[in-house]
Amino acid sequence: MAGDVRWRCVAAGRVQGVNYRARVADSARRRGLVGSVANRSDGTVLIEVQGPLDLVAEFLDDVRGPRGLSHARSVERVEELPISRDLASFEIERE
Question: How far is residue 47's CA from residue 92's CA, in Å, rounded to a whole number?
Fold first, then answer.
């Protein structure tokens, strides 16, 4: 797991009710990343992602901006987390 990171990020913009969580999960899974994505009560989306730094950076670039009905104005890293060996997939947290 050398070179891996695990970050907590927050996406803001038009990111709820527009299939944004599915977009995030699809992007992460295509890159073999693990973690989760969930809506927050303040209208933002919480993303926890783990994997090689270059793939995580590529993933974050991919989930920014407009696509379909969604438009993530910003996706900001808010916390670095310890690497977890227990994560095996990328999940969409249900409300």
Answer: 10
